[in-house]
Amino acid sequence: MFSRRDFCRIGGLSVALYGSVRSLLAADEVPPPDGLTDMVKDVRPLPDEAFAARREKARALMTGAQLDALWLESGTDLTYFTNVRWGLSERTFGVLLPRRGEPVWICPAFELERAQERIPAGQAVRTWKEHESPYALIGGTLKDLGAGPRLGLGPTVRAFQYFGLGAAVPQLELRPGAPVTEGCRGIKSEQELAYMDLANRILKLAYRRAFRHLKDGMTPDDLRRLIGDNCQRMGVSGGGWPQFGQNSAYPHGSMVRRDLEKGGIVLVDGGCSVEGYRADVTRTVVFGPPTDRQRRVWDIVYKAQQAAYAVVRPGVTCEAVDASARRVIEAAGFGPGYTFFAHRLGHGIGLDGHEYPYLVRGNTLTLQPGMTFSNEPGIYIYGEFGVRIEDCFAVTEDGYRVLGGLESTTLDQPFGE
């Protein structure tokens, strides 16, 4: 059985980037402002041992959750435990992870050769023909493995598979598999954190360079392309989704096109990934001299973000972090509740841009080292403007660490310069 220490050691910091991720993210290693360089060309993927360690941890969690096996279909849960990526379709494809024994894959027969290009050597594959039931095959496989009837389903397993299994193998006890998947994915290894550190740094550098080219009449698509091009030059796909002026009051944007004008708010939310691990960053600036009201609202949001960080440490509840930021905004007159700060403070992040767990009222889960979240307070005033500041952070043994650095300090210094 693997301890958390063993799990992190196997994950290792084996990312080779100009020597190490730590040196890359130091201030003197940031690419010069007049040019962007490929920052991922030497990144190493996770070794096979890391995926084996994840499956071993899953087996331990299955015991606690009283599950005999776990069924995962295509998606990030499948990738997390197996390093296999497979597109979703109506044909059932996935893996059975038994509590005792090795993975067994369930695959459409005509896809076998393609699947074997992806499935790790030595892992068993069972196939079903077009007229056969994949659900009966899953049930028969469990029986052959000597597994019990308690089958956990990954949280993204689709409803038709749930009902298909229930009808074809009525003796199965179908249970939530989230205690296993979330129990593993919620805590990041050092190498996962290194990927996320780099992804967030790249995205912030892409924003920073693009913001130098703001101009009167610029369209949101103009700025989006600049950010996307900057990401590509640093070796990743991704970018930002800008909102100008009054549209910044819509947390996820408006369909009404507004081009950039002097004195207008520029709010950009976006993402990219390194080895599948996501970044999520929002910056809010003003094109030209800000008004007193714009500056005041920005300062309130910034103080809310800092208030959230101030309480982050192991043992604190997720809802307490949200409440700390919300109190600052309400005390400044932008309340109550969700009136102006319209959403939760943050979400988990990893292989998915939004994943378990969440910083939201009612979530009494306690923070643990290795958890990763966004910290993104906002104030949204329809008809005027909105302000959001978002950085991702990791919970540490004694507090937190902002991923990618380059934190905002003032409205005029969105990257801490």
What this model shows, in words?
Helix 3 packs across helix 8 (178-185) and helix 9 (190-211) crosses helix 10. The chain is built from 12 helices and 16 strands. By secondary structure, the protein is α+β, with helices and mostly antiparallel strands. It starts with a helix and ends in a 15-residue tail after the last strand. Strand 13 (378-381) and strand 14 form a beta hairpin. The strands form 5 sheets. A 6-stranded mixed sheet has the order 4-3-2-1-5-6. Helix content is 34%, strand content 20%. It folds into 2 domains: 68-176, Creatinase/prolidase N-terminal domain (Creatine Amidinohydrolase, Chain A, domain 1); 190-402, Creatine Amidinohydrolase (Alpha-Beta Complex). It has helices at residues 4-11, 21-24, 48-65, 76-82, 112-116, 134-145, 159-168, 178-185, 190-211, 220-233, 292-311, 318-331, and strands at 69-73, 94-98, 104-108, 124-128, 150-153, 173-176, 238-244, 264-274, 277-287, 346-348, 355-359, 372-375, 378-381, 385-388, 391-395, 400-402. Mean pLDDT is 92; it is low at 1-34.
